[in-house]
Structure formats: C-alpha cells, structure tokens
C-alpha cells in the first residue's frame, strides 16, 4: 500500500473483491492505521473504482445517502463489521485454523438472489438498481463465499511489510509471495531492511 491515503484507495492488490475491501484500512497492523473509506459516500467511490456496481446504481445510492444520512451511517457500520469479519476469517485461514462463519452465514441468510449481470465500460457487474443502501454489501459477500469455497482459501497471504497487513490471494507457483505489491511494499521493506543492516555495521551506531 502507499503512504498516500488517496493513492492507497486506488490500489487493488488483493486479487479478489472481498480482499480488496478488507484492504480499505491502510497500515492495518501498524500503530496508526488509516481509514480509506471514512463514510458511505467514500465507500461508493471505492465501489466505482473497483467496479462492483454500475455507474447508475452508484449515482442512485449517492442520492439516497444524501437524503438519509442516518441510514447511510447504519449501512456503513454494517459494511465495516463485515470488513472486520473478513480480517478474522483471512487470519484464521493463513494459520490453517477454522473460521467462525456465524456472522457471514447470518448475512447470507439475508442476501437477495444474485441479480443478472450487465456490461459496463470495464467488467460485468451485478445489475443492482440502487434502491437500497445495503446493495453494495452483497458483491463483497458473494466474493467472500467464492473465496471460501475454492482453492483460494488455501492461498490467502498477508503482506509481510512492517505495518501493512493487506491480504491477497497468493497465486505464485510456489506460494512464495511476500508483499501486497513488490513495487510498493516490497521495495520499501527491502530498503528498510538494508538500512537497518547498514546501521548495525557502522561503529558506534545502535540498531
């Protein structure tokens, strides 16, 4: 992830929608995490960039959120609760442990039937109408179920850069991926380690 929150909010290194959503807290494992979707409107901006909803649905939801701020705040709280659940699930998968799926299964029980797909300027998206503020939650949830019911579940990785904590599906041949991005966190972490090593070799310097 980037040190710049605006840039970080446009970086999608997870490889799956649910993991990119999990990564909307920058510097997740540091002492100073940075929220990339501080409110529902910011979240809709993320949906537009990630391509989970049509432009028309996003515009309609923006209007509803402006008219019903309390409902938008409630929908945002539900989204952040799901994000926390995804963190817990991914951490358990990485350790080879069972995940507590009670909350996820409760959401699945409430989920609507998956709508038809429509083509956008980019990928296909679910054809939501933009009538209810909970609509953006469902593509994330369906992405999570796809991960959990596929080989992806055994390939969940977490960036090893100090303080990052971003998740990804490790699709490297030998499952040796260490970073959310080799060019971003990888380069920064290699530089940090090289600097720390040099300090240890300089007389009079403490590590």
From TrEMBL:
Pfam families noted in UniProt: ABATE, zf-CGNR
Superkingdom classification of source: Bacteria
Domain (Zinc finger CGNR): residue spans on this chain: 155-198
Source organism of this protein record: Bradyrhizobium zhengyangense
InterPro entries: ABATE (IPR010852), ABATE_dom_sf (IPR023286), Znf_CGNR (IPR021005)
Protein name: ABATE domain-containing protein
